[in-house]
Design brief:
Layout: E1 2-6, H1 8-12, H2 22-36, E2 41-45, H3 51-61, H4 78-97, H5 100-127, E3 139-143, H6 150-153, E4 158-162, H7 167-170, H8 181-188, E5 194-198, H9 201-210, E6 219-221, H10 235-242, E7 252-256, H11 265-276, E8 285-289, H12 299-304, H13 309-312, E9 313-317, H14 321-329, E10 334-336, H15 345-352, E11 357-360, H16 365-369, E12 374-376, H17 381-393, H18 395-409, H19 414-429
Parallel strand pairs: 1-2, 1-3, 3-4, 4-5, 5-6, 7-8, 8-9, 10-11, 11-12
Helix pairs in contact: 2-19, 4-5, 10-14, 11-17, 15-18
């Protein structure tokens, strides 16, 4: 099976550690398993450029492939990488600054001029880095995030693209700036010679509705998995590890997520603070693991609950990978009341650490949690408070859900995810 797998996103991470997002982890885990599969004849590309960083990533990640498997420009440099970044930026500006309906000729003319100028600069090989002998129907080209380049679209290679979700299109109010250009381009350029990989049945339904002319039989679901460094830790080591974060074993409820409207953290915290006023254990805290994000903030909650917010709520910010299992395992239970998710890895990470989970009954989250957790309407504060109180008070309930969590989490792994991905490739070739 001849596969060209694009790792542009992994190359980004060399200069920008913040690029190591959930999508980065998905691509990296699939790459590591594909590289070891004897049935996969693997080639790597980086159609977004950053070729210097591409080779640096290969070196530091110990990817054992011969150089003839790297389908990237032979003559590259940091200067050419920077020129190609500029070229892509200009092309993107043309794409979104003009109406294709009224000024398509002008847009195409400007793009042609820019393309000609940059070819003269010396980045011609960046524009079409994969030789035509690899772009036949014997090969699969898989872009696990970025839109397919024009030269790929016009070739005979079997085309696959990953679209994880279309939340930014479906709910633009949850996104700062209200535009996710990569997703818009991915949907805009779809044709029925391309196959889509997504991460949940719910996302498949969303994509099929948005791209109504696209053949839904060409949309395949490949579930994700939690990282192996999420596991249930023992109490003694956990107590020691979480002290640095001001946490006490079994004395906090945990949520994970960037501080942004879609994650609905205000509802979770509000429900907790309401029940904290009703005689709850005074030592119990609500801990939030995640970045700053954007949105209104929590000033209104700080004012409304001035008697307890400061003492009860802890914002942990960034936590190192090696500490995550301890922070998860030390919690009483896990809460994740996001309005919408393409998959929802945090609840799975929590379940892999043996935590009882209280999650939203929306989007893809029921697919992940199944019957192993408690599902609630993320807008129903009274129900959320009731379920929180039950979990705080009922040790047997927590123990039962903990066992179910670990059993459920065992059904997800990167090995199984990559096998599902490989099955999609076979289906496409056939």
């Amino acid at each position: 099976m001849k596969l060209i797998f694009d790792i542009s996103v992994l190359a980004w991470s060399v200069r920008n550690p913040k690029a190591k997002t959930g999508i980065f982890r998905v691509i990296e885990n699939h790459l590591k398993h594909l590289a070891k599969d004897p049935e996969i004849d693997l080639y790597l590309s980086s159609v977004n450029g950053h070729i210097t960083d591409f080779f640096e990533y290969i070196k530091t990640s110990n990817i054992e492939l011969s150089k003839d498997r790297f389908l990237v420009p032979k003559k590259y440099s940091k200067a050419k990488d920077r020129f190609f970044v500029l070229y892509n930026w200009l092309s993107d500006k043309f794409e979104f600054s003009y109406s294709w309906n009224h000024l398509s000729f002008l847009v195409k003319l400007l793009q042609s001029i820019v393309r000609f100028v940059f070819q003269k600069i010396g980045i011609k090989s960046y524009l079409n880095p994969i030789p035509g002998s690899y772009l036949t129907n014997e090969f699969i080209f898989h872009s696990p995030y970025l839109p397919l380049p024009k030269f790929i679209c016009e070739s005979n290679v079997k085309k696959v693209i990953s679209i994880y979700d279309i939340i930014s299109i479906k709910f633009p109010e949850f996104f700062q700036g209200n535009k996710d250009r990569v997703i818009i381009q991915n949907i805009r350029y779809l044709d029925n010679e391309t196959s889509i990989i997504t991460i949940s049945e719910n996302s498949k339904i969303d994509i099929a509705k948005e791209a109504s002319l696209f053949d839904p039989d060409r949309i395949f679901v490949v579930p994700l998995a939690a990282e192996t460094f999420f596991f249930k830790t023992d109490e003694k080591n956990t107590e020691k590890a979480i002290q640095k974060y001001g946490l006490v074993y079994g004395k906090y409820i945990l949520s994970v997520g960037t501080l942004e409207p879609r994650k609905n953290l205000k509802m979770s915290i509000r429900a907790f603070l309401e029940i904290s006023r009703k005689g709850m254990d005074p030592e119990l805290k609500y801990a939030v693991l995640g970045g700053k994000g954007w949105g209104d903030g929590f000033d209104d909650l700080k004012t409304e609950f001035s008697d307890c917010f400061k003492e009860r709520v802890r914002f942990l910010g960034f936590v190192r990978d090696e500490d995550l299992s301890f922070v998860y395992s030390g919690a009483l239970f896990f809460v994740y009341l996001s309005f919408y998710e393409g998959f929802g890895l945090p609840p799975l990470e929590a379940m892999q650490c043996g935590l009882p989970v209280l999650v939203s009954n929306t989007s893809s989250l029921p697919e992940v949690v199944g019957d192993a957790g408690i599902l609630v309407d993320p807008r129903d504060q009274k129900r959320i408070q009731t379920e929180m109180q039950n979990l705080i008070a009922n040790k047997k309930l927590r123990e039962s859900l903990s066992r179910k969590s670990m059993q459920r989490a065992n059904s997800f792994s990167w090995e199984e995810s990559t096998l599902a991905l490989k099955s999609v490739y076979k289906n496409i070739l056939n």
